UniProtKB/TrEMBL annotation:
GO terms for molecular function: transferase activity. The keyword Transferase applies. Coiled coil: none annotated. It comes from the Bacteria. Keywords: Transferase. This is TIGR00180 family glycosyltransferase.
């Protein structure tokens, strides 16, 4: 099987926060492909990772650091022209990364690219199951405003897409400066990437995502005291407006209303219901946002054989390599327990 070598072009960043079990699996996965990309580990777990780190760059952070700050500091160290973020319990497939990089190199008006994603989980710690398989949609409007509002109205996660590094650095710097928690932070970063350029989604296996309500990386609910308040939303919206006004050369009428209406479409109900005065995070909004970020609200299990039959021979090899590694590490985890 052909394995692309992207060491001079692409850095994959992972951000462990609660331990290193999945990080070991993550590193072994890329070792099986002879480490075709640069790996950058931004670790805010309580304990330092002490395994062999010859094949990657490793930086230790305080456990209390904000996710956005950790990303911002880590991204400043990247020298490759392209970068992608991947949770340590997920996998980005080298052939999919190669297709994304090749496309971005050939199309300067695109800021990010990604392929199709499938999610998996281990049933009873023994049986590998496949959840949804999803293909996103390309957003190729010439207008930054059209791209951004279309993305918000029909949101699809771009967290792990291959980005131009300068775009990825900038959007997470803005997320750090203009949001207070990961709920709006990831959303703002994703929207700003669409204001920076077009999005290409291609029909090739790109990402395998572990389905879990509690990911090993930092998630939007890692701070239960955080609030999505009207003030938080207004700061988020102001940042988005400023970028769109620059892209549109200051000639956009009624921009506040356009963003509000798109946000209501994203949330599925009027904004006023979410921003009641002096209230903590309202449970329906919290659940809605979580579903939007996860994009796998309902588990619909498929036999892996059924899923495999939908894949090309090359994609099937990639899938089976992930399945084998997940099963082996699941057995190791059971033995440790």
């Amino acid at each position: 099987m052909f394995v692309p070598y992207l060491i001079d072009k692409l850095t994959v960043i992972t951000t462990p926060h609660y331990g290193h079990f999945y990080l070991k699996r993550f590193l072994l996965y890329y070792q099986q492909y002879n480490n075709p990309v640069k790996l950058l580990i931004l670790d805010s777990s309580p304990e330092e990772f002490t395994d062999n780190l010859e094949t990657c760059d490793y930086f230790k952070f305080d456990h209390r650091i904000r996710f956005e700050e950790k990303l911002y500091l880590g991204l400043s160290r990247i020298e490759t022209p392209y970068a992608a973020i991947c949770s340590d319990d997920d996998f980005l497939i080298p052939a999919g990364l190669q297709e994304a990089v090749a496309f971005l190199e050939a199309n300067s008006d695109y800021a990010l690219a990604q392929g199709k994603t499938f999610s998996f989980y281990m049933r009873n710690g023994r049986q590998f199951r496949v959840c949804h398989s999803q293909v996103g949609h390309s957003i190729e409007d010439d207008s930054a405003l059209s791209r951004t509002l279309r993305h918000l109205r029909d949101y699809y996660v771009t967290f792990s897409a291959v980005h131009r590094t300068n775009v990825l650095k900038y959007i997470w710097e803005e997320a750090l400066s203009n949001t207070y928690d990961y709920r709006l932070g990831e959303l703002l970063a994703s929207l700003l990437s669409l204001s920076a350029g077009k999005l290409k989604s291609f029909d090739r296996l790109f990402c395998a995502r572990r389905y879990s309500h509690t990911s090993t990386g930092q998630t939007m609910d890692n701070n239960p005291k955080a609030r999505v308040t009207r003030n938080n939303y207004e700061r988020f919206k102001l940042c988005l407006k400023e970028h769109l006004l620059v892209k549109g050369k200051g000639q956009m009428d009624n921009l506040d209303n356009l963003i509000d209406r798109a946000m209501e479409y994203y949330l599925g109900r009027p904004l006023w219901r979410y921003f009641l005065s002096n209230m903590p995070v309202i449970p329906p909004m919290f659940r809605k946002l979580k579903r939007r970020f996860m994009r796998f609200p309902e588990i619909v299990s498929e036999d892996t054989e059924e899923f495999e039959n939908k894949l090309s021979p090359e994609e099937k090899n990639d899938f089976l390599a992930i399945k084998k590694l997940v099963e082996e590490y699941s057995r190791m985890n059971q033995c440790q327990d």
